[in-house]
UniProtKB/TrEMBL annotation:
InterPro entries: Aquaporin-like (IPR023271), Aquaporin_transptr (IPR034294), MIP (IPR000425), MIP_CS (IPR022357). This is Aquaporin. The chain crosses the membrane at residues 49-67, 95-118, 138-160, 167-192, 212-236. It is a multi-pass membrane protein. GO terms for molecular function: channel activity. It comes from Methanococcus maripaludis OS7.
Length: 239
């Protein structure tokens, strides 16, 4: 595939992820606001995180199965950097992929805002991630590190490793993300992806909601988690 097609696929894939994943998080908050139900949404607590995780799982699986053959369906700067760190992705393409992912994330968040209006920002925050009450900056970074480590480790095993069985990557990776979000979402939002956080932050900031103070959490944790996971997998599987 040409680089232009790969970049379009990364942009489109990340846009789909951000529209449906963070969009589901924003929707649960708006439902809770309208009904007065305790918890993050109508189901209250863990049930809502399961619903949000399921939305991410389906969106990611769909993108991998449709875009994987075009660009590899990274749809995540941390994944791209992790593959670059172990020389599985060329340096000259890394920055271009990340730019395409960030643009796609912003477009996905903007389209969700266009569908609903200002309540998606003032009530739902466009599904933006931030540490929850009682969670320190370090704890949030650690949660993002652990979650992204698991995600990248699974990606290495089911998508990068040539010995992996065919046809399961999208399903397994999607379900892994869903499980991570269900478990760790109420710590720091379970972003696992700098682009997934960047899109909502950018559009939120246009309409007066400024969360950029937390953005380093969603760069440091996911990027370090992906790099460590990639090297760990390579070490464990080296003959």
């Amino acid at each position: 595939m040409s680089m232009i097609k790969k970049l379009i696929a990364e942009c489109l894939g990340t846009g789909i992820l951000v529209f449906f994943g963070p969009g589901a998080a924003a929707m649960t908050l708006m439902i809770a606001n309208n009904t007065g139900t305790a918890g993050i949404g109508l189901l209250g607590g863990l049930g809502d995180w399961f619903a949000i995780g399921f939305s991410f799982a389906i969106a990611i699986a769909a993108v991998i199965y449709t875009m994987g053959r075009i660009s590899g369906a990274h749809i995540n700067p941390a994944v791209t950097i992790g593959l670059w760190a172990i020389k599985k992705f060329p340096t000259k393409d890394t920055v271009l992929y990340i730019i395409a992912q960030l643009i796609g994330a912003a477009i996905g968040s903007l389209l969700f805002f266009a569908c609903i209006g200002i309540d998606s920002v003032t009530v739902g925050g466009l599904g933006a991630t931030a540490p929850f009450a009682g969670i320190s900056y370090f704890q949030a970074i650690l949660a993002e590190f652990i979650g992204t480590f698991l995600l990248m480790f699974v990606i290495m095993g089911v998508a990068v490793d040539k010995r992996a069985p065919d046809g399961f990557a999208g399903l397994v990776i999607g379900l892994t993300v869903g499980a991570i979000i269900t478990t760790t979402g109420n710590i720091a939002g379970a972003s696992l992806n700098p682009a997934r956080t960047f899109g909502p932050y950018l559009i939120d900031s246009i309409y007066g909601l400024n969360l950029w103070y937390y953005f380093p959490i969603y760069i440091i944790g996911p990027v370090l988690g992906a790099i460590v996971a990639a090297f760990t997998y390579e070490y464990l599987n080296r003959e």
